[in-house]
Task: inverse folding
């Protein structure tokens, strides 16, 4: 298995300085064209920014004998196990194939994950009592609201395996990052490079936006030509 660069606090902080579209653009230029999750939206508009390694949960369409085995104790309850095993700073990433007729979790589980220090929650499926979750200060991105338990339509079959969420591949340990724009999945081995480039890009775009507000023409300002980049470098030195 490939060794990943540790997701350190400085790397996380650089990512959180950037916007999801910036990261998606940088990944696109590196040849990763399927990283943005179309569909999952935040429930709490005041809690949207997060970044952390994915703790993945794979679900499949429900089958009655599996539910019976879980109820009898001959098969582990992996839904409960995922909540027990996820660590502080990780992101709970639940693959539900877009199923919104059932809920993986509700406000009590969400509160528990908040207290546990989980960075965020992403699922391409439903939650229960979205109105209550919307007041909990943890980033939670989902695609629906349902009152039925997860075993009505889905069954948790595996933990920390590769999954697809909203059509995006997520490997265990990949970095999921979210803000008001949505969620992006960053391959773990690229995160330090992307975080550094994204933070630098945000500073450049701050400079460019300032010039545009002052009436600079778009041509040559964005994308910046050599003259604009030279001016940008002088601007950076003046800020030191």
Result:
């Amino acid at each position: 298995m490939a060794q990943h660069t540790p997701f350190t606090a400085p790397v996380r902080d650089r990512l959180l300085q950037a916007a999801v579209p910036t990261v998606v653009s940088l990944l696109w230029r590196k040849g990763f064209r399927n990283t943005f999750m179309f569909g999952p939206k935040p429930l709490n508009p005041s809690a949207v920014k997060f970044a952390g390694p994915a703790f993945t949960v794979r679900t499949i369409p429900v089958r009655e004998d599996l539910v019976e085995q879980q109820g009898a104790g001959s098969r582990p309850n992996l839904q409960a196990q995922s909540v027990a095993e996820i660590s502080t700073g990780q992101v709970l990433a639940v693959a539900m194939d877009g199923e919104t007729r059932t809920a993986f979790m509700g406000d009590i589980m969400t509160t528990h994950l908040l207290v546990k220090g989980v960075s965020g929650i992403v699922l391409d499926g439903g939650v229960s009592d979205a109105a209550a979750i919307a007041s909990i200060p943890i980033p939670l991105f989902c695609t629906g609201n349902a009152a039925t338990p997860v075993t009505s339509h889905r069954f948790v079959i595996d933990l920390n395996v590769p999954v697809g969420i909203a059509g995006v591949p997520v490997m265990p340990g990949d970095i999921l990052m979210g803000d008001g724009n949505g969620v992006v999945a960053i391959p773990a081995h690229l995160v330090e490079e992307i975080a550094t480039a994204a933070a630098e890009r945000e500073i450049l775009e701050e400079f460019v936006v300032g010039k545009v507000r002052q009436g600079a023409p778009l041509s040559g300002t964005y994308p910046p030509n050599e003259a604009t980049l030279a001016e940008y470098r002088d601007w950076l030195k003046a800020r030191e």
Observations:
- The chain has two domains: 33-186, 194-239.
- The chain has a mean pLDDT of 96.
